[in-house]
Amino acid sequence: MPVSGLPPYDPANIFARILRGEIPAKKVAETEHALAFHDIAPQAPVHVLVVPKRAYVSLADFAATASDAEIAGFWRLVASVAKELTLELSGYRVLTNMGVHGHQEVPHFHVHLFGGRPLGRMVPSGEG
Ligand code: 5GP
Predict the structure, then answer these.
(1) Measuring CA to CA, which of 43, 55, 91, 118 is 20 to 30 A from 22?
(2) Annotated catalytic residue 110
(3) pLDDT at residue 70 above 80?
């Protein structure tokens, strides 16, 4: 039974295929626990995705079942990528989409790292 309201992990999802090297990605950084690469359809001058290497459907799944070392390693990579891309001074946004209301499209847990311009309000008003 999945932890969240999402189906069980699908190893055919696009990020699993990137992690297996089956399709290319513009890699930014990699550690034992996680991989960072550029989003294929960037929504800001910097739009990087950070994914854990192991199979987690969502944040709920990652938080409930990943080891402490994976969780720490994952978040340290997010922060170090932001630093490497010189976003610390100007600021940046980290976001994860989870499930239906979160509009999660790829069912492998990931965070988006946005930066390089003022990013506006956190959640746009109106329907979506
Ligand atoms: P989600 O809505 O699941 O949080 O976001 C999925 C993200 O994955 C989207 O921003 C989308 O542009 C990105 N994406 C989808 N397919 C690919 C791909 O093949 N390569 C890369 N690098 N990003 C992708």
Answers:
(1) 43
(2) yes
(3) yes
Chain CA centroid to CA 64, Å: 17
**Beta pairing partners, 36:** 29, 50
Say which residue the tokens 């309201």 belong to.
Answer: 5
| Rounded average pLDDT over 6-34 | 97
Question: From the alpha carbon of 107, which atom of ligand 1 is closest?
Answer: 3
- Reported as a single tens digit per residue, the pLDDT across 47-58 is 999 999 999 999
CA distances from 59 to 4, 51, 66, 107, 119 (A): 9, 11, 10, 10, 23
Entry pTM: 0.95
Substitution candidate for ligand 1 out of 18, 39, 94 with most atoms within 8 A of CB: 39
Write the CB contacts of 9 (distance below 8 Å, at least 6 apart in sequence): 2, 55, 56, 57, 61, 107, 108
Which of 124, 114, 110 has its CA nearest to residue 90?
Answer: 114
CATH of region 30-115: 3.30.428.10
Percent of the chain with pLDDT over 70: 94
Residue type, 26: K
